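Anyone able to model this chain together with zinc ion?
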Amino acid sequence: LRKNFYIFATAVFFILKTTTVFAQAPSTDEDAFFIKNIYSYSLTQGNAYTWLRDLCARAPGRVSGSAEAAAAVEFTRQIMDTLGLDTVYLQPCMVPHWVRGAKEQCKVVGSPTQGDMPLNVLALGNSVATPEGGLTAPIIMVMSLEEVEKLGEKVRGKIVFFNRPMDGTQVSTFSAYGGAVDQRVKGPAVAAKYGAIAVIVRSVSSTKDDFPHTGVTVYDDKTPKIPAVAVSTNDADKLTLLLKAEKEVRLFIKTNCKTLAPVQSYNVIGEIRGKKQPQEIILVGGHLDAWDVGKGAHDDGAGCVHSMQVLHTLHNLGYKPNRTLRCVLFMNEENGLAGGTEYARLSNLRNEYHLAAIESDAGGFTPRGFQTEAESSVFIDKMKKITRWSPLLEAYDLTISKGGSGADISPLKSQLGLLIGFRPDSQRYFDIHHTAEDTIDKVNPRELHLGAAAITSLLFLIDKYGL
Ligand SMILES: [Zn+2]
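re: yes, here you go
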């Protein structure tokens, strides 16, 4: 009788286990075991670093519309074709085609103490060029957009020097970046409103060195487009000292950038179709384009290879997803967001539902966790659900908190799923972000593969239990 009871109890257990009662209960030993397998696979057999090394070598400086960007599309499509996915395809999108042209020149001219003093600068992305012979004018230093508004007409005919540094006291470098980047994005438009003829902006950088950091600037349709460059933090400090010592500091700037006709480019997409709820999509992605001066290793080659590794790991571990898992390598995050916008537009047209979208666009450093956001009507419920898995993730030093997700996936918010940003350690990211220093030697293979494992683990839990 006793033996029969055990058989009966075991049978009941297995029946319950397959029903929602148990299936909803996360944090099982089985899940912990599978996550351990994900980490073991990623760390010992992952291809992410090799792919990233090859991407940086074959398609460096893959700014939208460039031959390098086209090479990146083709190379990553070829990789995806080898991953055993159900479908791999290119999704067309029209992208802007901005080119830097010949190297910029910038120097202080006619300083009584320094004579001519060259400065390390880079034209800002999407900016217009100076006149062919360059331009020369006195500079006026400001620490904020508001200061320009207050100065008003006093900036007319001058070069406005935005010089507010990233706040070094903030532990989150992303917050510090967010607190300084308005000068680069909006500074030229605001300065132009009052007749400034050019802008030089202190690089949005967390370190002191000679490398200028480029990045997009956004003009205002109502004001003239004026040339804009970023100057290295060391040179910004030199300018600051000179402005204290001398009554007038004059700068010469010559840039050669231009915007050509838009080009057809692509998002690169691969997916594994869900077995039970294929209509529910879980996206993992990064952006394929990168600024022309670097190799796009951390920003955002890392995010692209993370995303491909996620699907590859699950496939090779024999995991059969309930939902559709889709890897999307977006084009044109840096200077237009054409890929992310077009992806969301087509997704909405097809009435798709993204249960969750995870973007990796913060580098390939040691994982720290995830930030989540959603429409306010669904956020609390989804947050409650995702934090059920905190104990499983904390074992790998991963935390889940509220915060920004990613630019490319942000247009998907209206589908009422959860948007998730992968968050690696950020202390070195803004040393190299948007510079010639964003190269493969700055990426540690083990850290990169830990990132892929972290994202794979969360995606697995979302797929298994829903949100
Ligand atoms: Zn990026």
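The CA atoms of residues 277 and 363 lie 32 Å apart.
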